[in-house]
Amino acid sequence: MTRTEATWSGFRAGAKSRSIARAVGAYLFTLLLLVALAWLTQPERALLAGRMHQVLAISGAFVAALLAWLSAARADTEAEARAREEPAMAPPLSDAAQASIAVLPLACLSGSADDAVVAQGFSAEIVRALSGVPDLRVVPFMQSALYADRPLNAIARELNVRYVLSGSLQRLGSQVRVIATLTDVGSGRQVWGESYDRGIGDLFHVQRELAEAIAIETGSQYLNIVSDDLCRQPPQGLSAWSLTHKALTFWTVSYTREASVEAIGWLEQALALEPGNAMAHVLLGFVLNQRVLNSFADDAAAENRRALAEVETALRLAPRDSTVMEYASLVWLNCGLRQKSLQTVRRVVAIAPFNMIAWGYLGCALTWGGTTAEREEGFAVLERLLRVAPNHPSVPFWHFFLAWGYTEAEDYAAAREHARIVVDIHPGFCLGWVELANALGASGDEAGARHALERAVEANPRFQVEGHRRYLLAVSREVGDSVDRQTRGLVRAGLLPPPSESSAA
Length: 505
Description:
- By secondary structure, this protein is an alpha/beta fold.
- 65% of the residues lie in helices and 8% in strands.
- The chain is built from 21 helices and six strands.
- Strands 1, 2, 3, 4, 5 and 6 form a six-stranded mixed beta sheet that branches.
């Protein structure tokens, strides 16, 4: 039993005892009061004068204690159940009867690939706007998008929501038709539906109208969800907005050096059209930093400097946009600014407590070079995510963060198991193979470590193990001996020279 568990157990036992004592004390106090009144008013017929009254008094005290114990035991059982369901710092789950919604991607009826991007981006923007409503739980779009083809009752059950927004988008020349339907899945009732026929430049007005209508229909408090304080101003032109979403989608799916070049090109086009697009700035910083992390960059230092500058620009433009802060936190973490990253991502999950991607980034920041308590908190967050969202697209990265964290804890057996899951799901993820190689080497499997590193180079021919160590040294100034732990197995397997030899060379 951990210290926390022991403390909690002692607290529960003390609380149970206090509950029983209070019940018996209240009973005896009432009894004594009645006795006093009886003696004052009718001394000859005092309440406890007879044997039967004495028996009843004792029995009453016993019954009071028993009822108090049963009540405390029930509360104890319920508390234990809640503790098992909800570990500390885990993403909270709401009852489906509360205001909660999943937004499905709008079906594209025009058959154009570009229009499909617009439809997907439109749906993502609806989620972004609704996330600013304080008392409406909104499922992150990347999560709800996985359920696009599922029956509504299955969606509601698996995502734990009451409402589902679905619909379609069709482009007809310069006009766009958007049809949206809001269904209360519990009752099977369509509570709201609307058709919008607008010019393509008016799509952002449609987003605002949709968001406001949904907030009202779900009984949520509508608090200016498209204000400057709660979300960024929408782009002035569809082209910049479309390019931004296209870049993010393409990079997330492809995750190659070539994909990073294309994504950067589209983001730069978006910024040429709209220099004040905060989302384009932060995504540009994110992709640049990911290039460095994955050994795609030609000049790592220069690209990281540019990444940090883009992030700062985005935050000046949209200082309270939770998505901007989310990406900023990851860039800062990968540039060695751990404390700044941790503070920021904690703010994000406070603003958007059901953003599972942000919770994953929090788990990553907590497990990298923090205190033992922080690392345990990070493990709890990541393990909770894997339980509640086993089909989320971020699953391989959550396992990677766990592998990294267990390496930090020098539990190389656990790191090895999580790293294997990473490469099984995502065999093209170079760093997953590197993490596996380090864990295998640290566990004494030198042949396995060499094989894993070969697979890392196959996934990314530009990867260099010494360059990987130099990168870790550059970003680890806030995380103590992380470099030693993250390369110990590579050194033991002969894949890296010891640090002293490397520096001497």
